[in-house]
Amino acid sequence: xxxxxQHPTETTCGGTQHTPTTPTLELIHGHxxxxxxxxxxxxxxxxxxxQRRMIGAWCFNDHxxxxxxxTTPMDVPPHPxxxxxxxxxxxxxxxxxxxxxxxxxxxxxxxxxxMTAGHGITHSEQTLTTHPTTHGYQLWTALPDxxxxxxxxxxxHPHLPADDTTTLILGTHxxxxxxxxxxxxxxxxxxxxxxxxTHTTPLEPDFEHGITTATGHATIDHTPLPPGPLLYLGTNRxxxxxxxxxxxxxxxxxxxxxxxxxIVMWWNLIARDHDEITTARTQWQNHDxxxxxxxxxxxxxxxxxxxxMPTTRLKPRGRTR
Length: 321
Hints:
With 321 residues, the chain is mostly beta strands. The protein has one helix at residues 274-285, and strands at 11-14, 23-28, 31-35, 41-47, 58-68, 75-81, 84-92, 94-99, 104-108, 112-116, 121-127, 133-142, 153-157, 166-173, 176-177, 186-193, 198-202, 208-215, 218-220, 223-225, 230-234, 239-244, 249-256, 262-266, 269-271. Its cofactor is Fe cation.
């Protein structure tokens, strides 16, 4: 997934200064963003946000769909990433992934696709019209300094730990660990709850957490949570109780230890300062071998061109506004 904004804001985030030490309820409404090489798809972005830019190492959260695949296809041409992991999670549909490390993978609902960009990688994504509806999430996690320049790689996990209500996407939960690679302490869960249910799930109190509703409607601590917003929960919670209403409800819970390092996010790149971003952008524009070449892309778009750099240098702003 790519950030296709032609005037992206350069954002500094990370550090623990603005991490609450108690449970809290902070509703992040997010905003809609046009996505896809032909701008057919609209996503709802809740991270990064002016209100809060990170939850643990989670620094990007797009929710898209449900969309009819034939009329609103996702076609994201080759584009670069550095210093992050992309975490692709489908509730409905199928996506074809191709990258410059020679990974070619189709994944469907309930299968985890996770790409570790490391020093630099290029990839493309396309929905498959053989599946009539596309609905899912694209998230990024920031890599810590000691692994952010690792060799890029891609992992596909078609089978994840699950029970009647909970699918463990990343991290460790209730004594069970996901097989997917992580580089900081993280958690990602999908919760599927029937109507008129009260469900309690254990949490790691050292983590900060956020939760969003994909389908249905939930209430958490007397706070309504329809599809769209992300509810930031703070830290020091040992459990979370969710109440559903008159529809089956699917939610995504993310969390992690507060990310202590400061990072710079711009377009599809994560680095540590303005100069690193400038170097990566120049290398991408010049077709430097750092990013390689994608084969297997069959969409209608062209290799994305990086937007112009901002006219002023980065001014650190921290985790929150």
